[in-house]
């Protein structure tokens, strides 16, 4: 078994393409340097190292983006849309007319990953991912900048994301279809997946209609160590030690990992039975050490009577979707496309 | 009519900067004369990875990491190395990470990982033996971006001629191109076209049209990143052209003075060219001084005397003990009343004293090398003499007689060795547009190599140093234009004419220079041998050449 603070990068070399390996290893190594053992985080260095890209209203490859500051939280949301057919329309941000009055255009509210601590909506990797989502799945994406830990702990990420969802649902220019509704799906990877779940719960309780949840290897956990955690610790870019660090940075100070934010169906989890919870697509990577928690989540949703589809990608590591150089990426995009377009008229 | 520089076909650039020029020249070959305003029609198709001229991994570029595909294996190995190091001493590492990045822009290729690695490896014992296990990549043949590994003219011509038929044909699995790269590629190429056209206009005397083109180019510059790559070099050339056209007062003779010395020092630190020059010359001088008890070095431009401490040390360590060393340094008068030559002499003397070497120094103050009279140099009959010229002789080329004069008295001294280092470039051609084109290529390559340097403020000031050379070449004429670089083959002819014969620098010097390079520099530099001379270049384009000479024996030589 790998030592608790060792990342054995060589194991995963055979599984992923070279450039993916380099990309993710680079992240993991730099993140290692940013996390301090005392639980604090070198935010300035992190911001300095982070590759960010600006929004671009001139379409590139058929997708354009623009940033909007949401007044209630003062946080930036980045909106991604397909380029209009008419070139004369390029560069114009349409904030009056709906997306369409004929067809339904799904709007995915996306919560980026980063274990609640890293990345932003304008991180290059997430910006690129959102663009690909728009292009391949024919959706509109709103990527949310939520406040991050350890500076802002639970429940800030959920509060900010809930605000963003309310904001999205009330934008007339995100409406589509004959009945002029905003057709919302929630999506997120890693911590973003965790956020998507909790926001969906709040939405269900508040009567705000969410059509579906897409959770990409969501970040869940619990006090006990599961079999997959022990087996895969340190083997594929991620260690238990760093997972623990991020939970300690996010959860309230005196809490442990059975806190309901972390352990959804654990001893302190709340019941979801009877809630008008959206259908879920949960994607699990076969080499993700926390898969047992993700699989437990899927089971838990099923037991509570909710519609959940599991996409288990056996040979995938975390972050497989950052670069479109593997089959998993395309499988994922296909599944998402089917998921969001299935109940369109 | 512009023609592509001959050097293009010899030195195939594999860098985006230099490639813009290659593309430009090939466009010129393929298409009829372009007016200055129809450069909009040319767009390089950078979306299909197979013919991407940039060689960078397109997918990683989309994630914000600029790495050449050919470098990925190496980067992977270094990451593994770094991981090992990080695990063994995490506390050292995080502090260094902070320090390291202050000097480094993380968006530049060669990444902060490299700079971090180079700082960490010496610190952590046992980390030198990083296992560089072969990295098998089962997916390399697969769908990842696979840009051509080396750009050859055929591929580029194919790109050019396919322009009309291959408009942005995307397959469904095309990776998304990065926004800025696309726009930049386009603007970059337009800028190069405009620069060449402007040079042609200046040469023809069509100055008002040239002036409006300069305005257009300034506008183009606002659309691209002028912090690096084509934007940076083009920016300098556009500036220089502007100054040539609009400045009433010609820039006075550059390349002298306190400021120049400071910039020179930073250029020395930022990149290996001067280190190579000094090292190679010193090795040759050391060999020439073998067996002599009294040695005298005449440095035609002392600057800050950076070259001499290693020579003094090497002479101190030679078997049989050090000789008596005399150094004569030529330099311009100081502007602030200090005797800077003397100060440097004192420092050198201090060093010599500390290692028990008998040493004397004399400083010769001269604004121009032509003003130095041989008797000032106090060359004596019993000593072994080395005359050393680092990038000085070309300054004499503005007047035929100046070079003859100086070479004449050097030859009359019959030195044991004359070491010459010069920029390997053809910037002294009579036609302005030819010079301009040459310079654009040369300095693009030079700036490309500077990108590999991460030391600040050395890099920024080194760039200023280089920028002044560019200004001089573009703006000045007559005696004010001192940067009259000529390539090795021309120097060979001149020196032979002046009564010198070449000395072979020897394979030892070559090996040692190569080794020095691997110790001190980034990947991409290469030392090459050229008929007994050594050159240092960037990716097979030599940028600086070192050679050694002796006076040809004559009937009445004074030995």
Automatic annotation (TrEMBL), chain A:
A GO MF label: gibberellin binding
Location of the Alpha/beta hydrolase fold-3 domain: 108-321
Top-level lineage group: Eukaryota
Pfam families registered for this protein in UniProt: Abhydrolase_3 (PF07859)
GO cellular component terms, semicolon-separated: cytoplasm; nucleus
Protein's UniProt keywords contain Nucleus: yes
Annotated active site: 190
Compartment(s) of residence: Nucleus
Keywords, comma-separated and alphabetical: Gibberellin signaling pathway, Hydrolase, Nucleus, Receptor
Gene3D superfamilies, sorted: alpha/beta hydrolase
Main location as per UniProt: nucleus
Family: Belongs to the 'GDXG' lipolytic enzyme family.
Listed name of the protein: Alpha/beta hydrolase fold-3 domain-containing protein
From TrEMBL, chain B:
GO cellular component: nucleus
Coiled coil ranges: none
Extent of motif VHIID: 295-299
Location (main, coarse): nucleus
Region annotated SAW, chain positions: 475-550
Residue span of region Leucine repeat II (LRII): 343-375
Stretch list, region VHIID: 264-329
Residues annotated as domain Transcriptional factor DELLA N-terminal: 57-122
Motif window: LXXLL motif: 393-397
Subcellular location: Nucleus
Example of a GO biological process term: gibberellic acid mediated signaling pathway
Keywords: Gibberellin signaling pathway, Nucleus, Transcription, Transcription regulation, Ubl conjugation
Record-stated family: Belongs to the GRAS family. DELLA subfamily.
Domain remark in the UniProt entry: The DELLA motif is required for its GA-induced degradation.
Reported function: Transcriptional regulator that acts as a repressor of the gibberellin (GA) signaling pathway. Probably acts by participating in large multiprotein complexes that repress transcription of GA-inducible genes.
Record's protein name: DELLA protein
């Amino acid at each position: 078994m790998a030592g608790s603070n060792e990342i054995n990068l060589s194991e995963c070399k055979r599984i992923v393409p070279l450039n993916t390996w380099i990309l993710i290893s680079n992240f993991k190594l730099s993140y290692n340097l940013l996390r301090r053992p005392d639980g604090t985080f070198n935010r300035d260095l992190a911001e300095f190292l982070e590759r960010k890209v600006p929004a671009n209203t001139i379409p590139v490859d058929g997708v354009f983006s623009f940033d909007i500051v949401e007044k209630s939280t003062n946080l930036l949301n980045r909106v991604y849309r397909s380029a209009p057919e008419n070139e004369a329309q390029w560069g114009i941000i349409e904030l009056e007319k709906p997306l369409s009055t004929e067809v339904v255009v799904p709007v995915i509210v996306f919560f980026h990953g980063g274990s609640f601590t890293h990345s932003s909506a304008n991180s290059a990797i997430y910006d690129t991912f959102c663009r690909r989502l728009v292009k391949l799945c024919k959706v509109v994406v709103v990527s949310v900048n939520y406040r991050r830990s350890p500076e802002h702990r639970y429940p800030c990420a959920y509060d900010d994301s809930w605000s963003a969802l309310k904001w999205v649902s009330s934008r007339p220019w995100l409406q589509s279809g004959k009945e002029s509704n905003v057709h919302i799906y929630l999506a997120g990877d890693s911590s973003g997946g965790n956020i998507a779940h909790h926001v969906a719960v709040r939405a269900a309780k508040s009567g705000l209609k969410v059509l579906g949840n897409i959770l990409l290897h969501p970040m869940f956990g619990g006090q006990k160590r599961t079999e997959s955690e022990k087996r895969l610790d340190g083997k594929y870019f991620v260690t238990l030690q760093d997972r623990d660090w991020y939970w300690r940075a996010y959860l309230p100070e005196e809490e442990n990992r059975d806190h309901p934010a972390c352990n959804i169906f654990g001893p302190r989890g709340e019941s979801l039975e009877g809630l008008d919870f959206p259908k879920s697509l949960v994607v699990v990577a076969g080499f993700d050490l926390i898969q047992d928690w993700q699989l437990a989540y899927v089971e838990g949703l099923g037991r509570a009577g909710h519609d959940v589809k599991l996409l288990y990608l056996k040979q995938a590591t975390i972050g497989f979707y950052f670069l479109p150089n593997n089959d998993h990426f395309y499988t994922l995009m296909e599944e998402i496309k089917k998921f969001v377009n299935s109940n369109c008229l | 009519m512009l023609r592509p520089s001959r050097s293009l076909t010899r030195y195939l650039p594999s860098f985006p900067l230099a490639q813009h020029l290659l593309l430009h020249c090939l466009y010129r070959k393929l298409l009829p004369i372009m007016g200055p305003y129809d450069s909009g029609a040319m767009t390089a198709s950078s979306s299909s990875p197979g013919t991407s001229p940039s060689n960078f991994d397109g997918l990683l570029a989309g994630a914000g990491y600029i790495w050449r595909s050919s470098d990925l294996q190496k980067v992977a190995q270094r990451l593994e190395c770094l991981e090992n190091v990080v695990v063994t001493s995490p506390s050292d590492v995080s502090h260094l990470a902070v320090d390291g990045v202050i000097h480094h822009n993380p968006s530049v290729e060669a990444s902060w990982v490299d700079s971090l690695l180079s700082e960490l490896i010496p610190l952590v014992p046992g980390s030198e033996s990083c296992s560089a296990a072969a990295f098998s990549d089962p997916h390399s043949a697969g769908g990842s971006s696979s840009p051509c590994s080396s750009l050859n003219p055929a591929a580029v011509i194919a790109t050019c001629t396919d322009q009309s038929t291959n408009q942005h044909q995307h397959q469904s699995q095309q990776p998304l191109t990065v926004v800025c790269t696309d726009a930049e590629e386009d603007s970059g190429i337009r800028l190069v076209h405009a620069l060449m056209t402007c040079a042609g206009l200046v040469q023809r005397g069509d100055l008002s049209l040239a002036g409006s083109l300069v305005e257009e180019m300034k506008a183009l510059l606002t659309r691209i990143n002028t912090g690096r790559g084509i934007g940076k070099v083009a920016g300098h050339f556009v500036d220089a052209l502007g100054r040539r056209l609009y400045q009433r007062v010609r820039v006075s003779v550059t390349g002298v003075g306190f400021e120049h010395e400071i910039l020179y020092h930073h250029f020395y630190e930022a990149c290996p060219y001067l280190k190579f020059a000094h090292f190679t010359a010193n090795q040759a001088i050391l060999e020439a001084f073998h067996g002599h008890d009294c040695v005298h070095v005449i440095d035609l431009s002392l600057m800050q005397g950076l070259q001499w401490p290693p020579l003094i040390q090497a002479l101190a360590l030679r078997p049989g003990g050090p000789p008596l060393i005399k150094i004569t340094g030529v330099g311009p008068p100081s502007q602030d009343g200090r005797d800077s030559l003397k100060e440097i002499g004192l420092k050198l003397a201090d060093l010599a004293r500390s290692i028990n070497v008998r040493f004397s120094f004399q400083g010769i103050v001269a604004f121009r090398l032509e003003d130095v009279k041989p008797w000032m140099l106090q060359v004596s009959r019993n000593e072994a003499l080395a005359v050393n010229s680092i990038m000085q002789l070309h300054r004499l080329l503005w007047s035929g007689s100046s070079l003859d004069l100086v070479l004449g008295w050097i030859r009359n001294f019959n030195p044991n060795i004359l070491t010459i280092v010069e920029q390997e470039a053809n910037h002294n051609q009579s036609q302005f547009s030819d010079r301009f084109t040459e310079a654009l290529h040369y300095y693009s390559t030079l700036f490309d190599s500077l990108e590999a340097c991460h030391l600040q403020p050395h890099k920024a000031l080194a760039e200023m140093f280089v920028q002044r050379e560019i200004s001089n070449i573009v703006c000045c004429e007559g005696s004010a234009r001192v940067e009259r670089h000529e390539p090795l083959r021309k120097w060979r002819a001149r020196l032979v004419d002046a009564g010198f014969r070449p000395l072979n620098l020897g394979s030892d010097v070559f090996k040692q220079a190569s080794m020095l390079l691997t110790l001190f520099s980034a990947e991409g530099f290469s030392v090459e041998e050229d008929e007994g001379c050594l050159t240092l270049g960037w990716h097979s384009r030599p940028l600086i050449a070192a050679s050694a000479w002796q006076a040809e024996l004559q009937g009445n030589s004074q030995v």
